[in-house]
Amino acid sequence: MIAKDDFYTVQPKDVPPEMGEIRKLLATNELELDEQIEVFVVCRREGRLVACAGLDHYTIKCVAVAEDARGESLSLELGSEVIKLAAERGHFHLFLYTPSHNQQWFRGWGFHRLVEVPHFIVLMENSPIAIKQYCESLREQRPPGKKIAGIVLNANPFTLGHQYLVEKAAAECDWLHVFAVREDASLFSYPDRFALVESGVKHVANLTLHHGSDYIISRATFPGYFLKEKEIVDHSWAAIDLLLFRQYIAPALGITHRFVGTEPFDAVTNRYNADMKYWLQAASPTPPIEVVEVPRASVHGVPISASLVRRLLAQQDFSAIKELVPATTLQFLENKYSAHLSATR
Amino acid sequence: MKLRRSMLFVPGDNAAALSTAFVYQPDSIMFDLEDAVSPREKDSARLLVFQALQHPAYHEIETVVRINELNTEFGLKDLEAAVRGGAQIVRLPKTDTAEEIHELEAHVARIEKACGRSAGGTRLMAAIESASGVVNAVAIATASPRMVAIALAGFDYLVDMHTRRSGGSEPELFYARAAVLHAARAAHIDAFDVVYGDVNDDEGFLREVAIAKGLGFDGKSLIHPKQVELLHRAYAPTPEELEHAKRVLAAAEAAHRNGLGVVALDGKMIDPPVLEEAEMVLERAEAA
Amino acid sequence: MKVIKESLAGTLESSDLLVKVAPSDKGSLDIAIQSEVIKQFGKQIERVVTDTLNKLSITEGSFVIEDKGALDCVIRARVQAAVLRATGSEDMDWRKLS
Question: B6-235, superfamily in CATH?
Fold first, then answer.
């Protein structure tokens, strides 16, 4: 009937013909296609693709509008469509990446700046108060003390290496805050990983274990962490996660030191540690956080790592695993994984 | 007598349209909860229309709500919103039988009672969108004293007829138009012509309006505000028509003053229908 | 009625507003309003929102509102729609909506 803008969605994994047009549109907006985007909202006007917005779980990226279609309600309609799409997929608390010079545009979408890598990229969220509320809830758990440590663990699963790091940090500081990465993208589910961390640190008195959040190593703050192929990720991605930690989370809890294990096996995490020193310690208006890199605990000269444990698990080598994990983790692995296999024999 | 030349469609989920449609001063405004609204947004649009109906700006214009068919999960809820919100007319889409009007009427009466609205206050209109609707048009139009109008919906009707619009004189719409018109006249209610979809083609729109007006349609369903003024101008009487109408009414006046039972003008008798038509012409002239 | 899940209603388009609701983990009612006309109409918008929520007996929840110059009746409608979606209610008590 009336000729109007046609909004619809496409999924990159279906390799639709739109991908070519999307790439071109992004290129004219000086953007590259982000391979982690699951679905695009596109707008077709008189046969031409004039706008697109990508969604990677609950993060909006790769938003572009053709130059001759800008300055109209098109952008707001695009925003409404992608926000609605995210809601249909169960995501209401949303994040958004944009080059710094475009951030004003997204204020109109109801997004507010969280952190900025100066002159480069900005992470925004669709609430003026969410991060404040989160920090307030953290602040309520702020213990006394001057030297406060923080550790972020994925713990996939929790090993003696993790335990060693935790015990060392707790011994050297007044208090230790441990955060478990909440994103469910690992072999072991978040509830399982969290339970293992919990039993593995129970004996440490000056410690608070926190559930992870969208603000700490999540698909929003550090998407590269969750890439299937662990390539070297752009420097800026780690910056966002670390700046969030430095500007919001650390101040809420009074964290002065961040402890990490040295990372010989995982290229992404290794790079992350290096970035950590830069972004947490470099001069900036916010107080620096000292990064303490602790050499990994090892067994028979081999550093303990969760990936090694997973490999051994695949081989059902529980006697080897026993040397690498606390009793609680071993018990869990045996209950869940060896019993399963014998049941199928 | 209520002029119903223009019935402007307003998508029920469009806040901007709902906030400004009254500015265009159509004779009637139809808030659409049916085809204009996606299934996911039906609940939100329903509330938008419910609230808009109660806005003072809409107290001066006749309000119509196009509900979803009653056999959908949305229809009855839409009806609650429409009646409780104070809509003056409920438009039933895809009306095929008189029974559907009876069913609608029963629900409307029930809701009026439940919310304390005056019984009979809510009027009805039917949209004919299929061959069945066309052949049942008279029964539909006379199905209830609440019926005030019957409209032909061209697009769905033509799909049902296995054809499409051809432009020009469009014989494919002739029978349906005639059927709807006759039903309207037999029932003494208003007849609405089809929507004209190409909003960029003013000439085509006016050509169609001329045809409809010539056939006797009281009005047309409109999908764009600019069509309102175009339509009103097209329906405005010519100076000659206006002049004649004034003379007819003056003659009626004079006869009434002199206590005469019969009205005559230029040696001819003026029947009540002619009188009615003259009143209509005057109304259209005043409103143009 | 109780807010039991997250929900969204409305759009970012002119004369409309986007209402995002989430359950409150603190048991409080938090309303954050953003609007280009916050100075002139901020109080008014807040009044309409709280009035609408009161009538629906909503005492807990987090409401984030992005207003684009909506009329009161539009604000009422979108807040009501968001609440309906967040409470999972099928049936409305129409008397609470006027």
Answer: Phosphoenolpyruvate-binding domains (3.20.20.60)
Q: What is the pLDDT of residues B92-107, one digit of tens each?
A: 999 999 999 999 999 9
Q: How many CB atoms sit inside 10 A of residue A4's CB?
A: 9
Q: Which of B18, B52, B84 sits opposite C94 (nearest CB)?
A: B84
Give the pLDDT of residue A228: 57
Q: Find the CB nearest B50 among C10, C70, C77.
A: C77
CA–CA separation, B114 and C3 (whole Å): 28
Q: Distance (Å) from the C-alpha of residue A88 to the closest C-alpha of chain C? A: 10
Please state the pTM of the whole predicted model: 0.89
Complex ipTM value: 0.96
A87 to C68: CB separation less than 8 angstroms, yes or no: no
Give me A76's structure tokens: 């707001």
Would you say residue B268 has pLDDT above 90? no
Quick one: fold of C7-92?
A: Ribosomal Protein S5; domain 2 (3.30.230)
Task: Tell whether A273 is covered by a domain.
Answer: yes
Q: Is the pLDDT of residue A267 over 80?
A: no
Interhelix angle for B202-215 vs B171-187, to 10°? Answer: 50
CA angle A212/A216/A220 to nearest 5° reads: 115
Same domain, A176 and A316: yes
**Closest residue in chain A to residue B16, using alpha carbons only:** A73
